[in-house]
Specification:
This protein has 295 residues and is an alpha/beta fold. It has a single domain, classed as Spore Coat Polysaccharide Biosynthesis Protein SpsA, Chain A (Alpha-Beta Complex). The chain contains 12 helices and 12 strands. The strands form 3 sheets. Strands 3-2-1-4-11 form a 5-stranded mixed β-sheet. Strands 5, 6, 9, 10 and 12 form a 5-stranded mixed β-sheet that branches. Strand 2, helix 2 and strand 3 form a beta-alpha-beta unit. The two termini are 32 Å apart.
Length: 295
Amino acid sequence: MTKISIIMACKDHQVYTQLAIARLIQNTYNDFELIIADDSVQPIDMFITELVESGIDYTVLYPPTPRDGAAHARNDCLRNSHYEYVIDVDNDVMVTPGWDRPLIEKLEAEPDIGLLIPMQNDLYFFDKESQIYEGSRVLNFWDVCVRFKHFRTMMSPDLTKEGVQGLEHILNETYGGSLDNFAKSYAERNKNREPVHLMNTWASWATRLSIMKDVGGYDENYKKAGYEDLDLARRLNMLNYRTIVTFNSYIHHCMSTTRPFIPGAVQAETNNSEYYRRKFTSENLNPREEWLKQK
């Protein structure tokens, strides 16, 4: 079995981070190391016991000074990864059983893939994060899911009806009251579906470490609120690597819950958009950059 590196950039949202780590331990079928870059105001030391007890290899990186944006953190994780196959997961993602195997198998079969993106939805939690806790114990994933009031799918128009009908539909008899059953059913129904070209990675991607070293990693000029993934995908395309979404790996993403809590996100997104526009209208753009060589 192929051993892989899973990287995670953390910026607060400790409750979701704990759930995300628990789901990785439970549902990742390949042997893996976990590399976490923690830029949180409150460090994730509270999760270290769980990582130790799980027996997985892990590294937690703490920056010497606070940083703005995920590009720095992801590059740090990539520099510290030890295996050729790397999967990036946001710290508000709940992976589903066996989610990693279709990604690794496709990367092994098709070496021209630069970024392979799993299918993902958007879960919106309507209570405050503190209400996910019961005393000092985080509720299991099912307890959390039944409190979601909104479920919508991303990147797949054929699921619009299911998304509009919401969680009541997803958790009906069709899927036995389980979002994981829904994910499994979706992946099975779409396992032979042709991949679709996509530039935005949303909450997760898989690739080879050698490819990331070739392109040079993320441009750290981007601050919080995105565009670093669009930049990365576009540079990979310029180097003739494909960036595609595959439909036979499925994850749950809590974006609508966590994203509104990012201070200054709207202005940062405007600034990133302008930087992205200037960069890719330049006549001297070299898709190979050297971010991963920096310390």
